[in-house]
Amino acid sequence: MSTPRTAVVTGASSGIGAATARALAADGFHVVCAARRRDRVEALAAEIGGEAVACDVTDRASVAGLAAAVGDRLHVLVNNAGGAFGSEPVESADPDDWRAMYEVNVLGLLNVTQALLPALRAGGDGLIVNMGSTAGRVAYEGGGGYTAAKHGTQVVTETLRLELCGEPIRISEIAPGMVRTEEFSVVRFGGDQAKADAVYAGVPEPLVAEDVAEAVRWIASLPSHYNVDELVIRPRAQAAQHKVHRVSDSDS
Ligand code: 8X3
Q1: Which of 8, 16, 75, 178 lies 20 to 30 Å (CA to CA) from residue 26?
Q2: Mutate to test the pocket of ligand 1, among 134, 150, 151 (most ligand atoms within 8 A of CB)
Q3: Is there a domain that residue 124 lies in?
Q4: Are 147 and 140 in contact (CB under 8 A)?
Q5: Residue to mutate (ligand 1; options 85, 178, 181, 232; most atoms within 8 A of CB)
Q6: How does pLDDT run across 29-55, given as a tens digit for each residue?
Q7: How far is the C-alpha of 244 from the C-alpha of 221, rounded, in Å?
C-alpha cells in the first residue's frame, strides 16, 4: 500500500477548516488538523483518522511545533486560519481589531508558510491553498480592517506564486463570498448572534463550509501542472458584495 499524501489544514477547529479536513481525508489524505482549540482538533482528527496539533498561527514558536509534528514531507497546506473582528467604519474602528486581523490573516499565513515550505518542497509535488475572501477583491462599508487584511492574503499569494515559479509547488487562493458558518459572523460581531443572523437573513441558501471545502478538495485533486491561481465562489443569491437577493417570510 502506498503512503497517503499528507495535508495540513489550519483553523481546522470549525467551519471551512473542519469541512476541508473532512473532505481531504475522504479523498485519501492523511490530514493534520491544526487550530488553537485542542479539544476540537482532537475530536476531528479522531473522526477522520488524522492527526491533531494545537497551534496558534500567530505564534511562531507554536508554528514551529506544527512543523515538527508534520515532519519532512508535506503535499498540501491549506492556510485557512483567519477571521474578521469588528464592523466599525474607518473613522471609529479599533486599531487592536485591525492589528488582530492582520496578525491572523496575513502574518499567520506567513508564519505557517515559512515553517512548512521546506517539507512542501521535499514532498516533490506541493500545493498551498490560501483562504482569501471576496473581501480581498472589493471594499464595503464597515469592512475596512478585514478587506485590508484579505487584500493582503490575496497579494501575498500572488507574490509567493511568482517567487516559487519553477519549483514543484502550486499556489492557489480561494475567495469565498457569503458563507454561513457557525462562528465567522458571530466572532465578527463580538458574540452578537442577532447581528450575525441578520447577515444571512432571507438569503436563500448562502454557501456553507462544505461548499468551500469541495473547492479545496477539487484543486488538490488536479494534476501537478494545473494551477488554479484564484477561485471566487459565491452563493447564487449574491451577484456582488452589495447585490444580495433576499426573500421575506411573505415571499416564501
Ligand atoms: C467573508 C466574506 O462578505 O463577510 O470572507 O466579507 S464577507
Answers
A1: 178
A2: 134
A3: yes
A4: yes
A5: 178
A6: 999 999 999 999 999 999 999 999 999
A7: 32
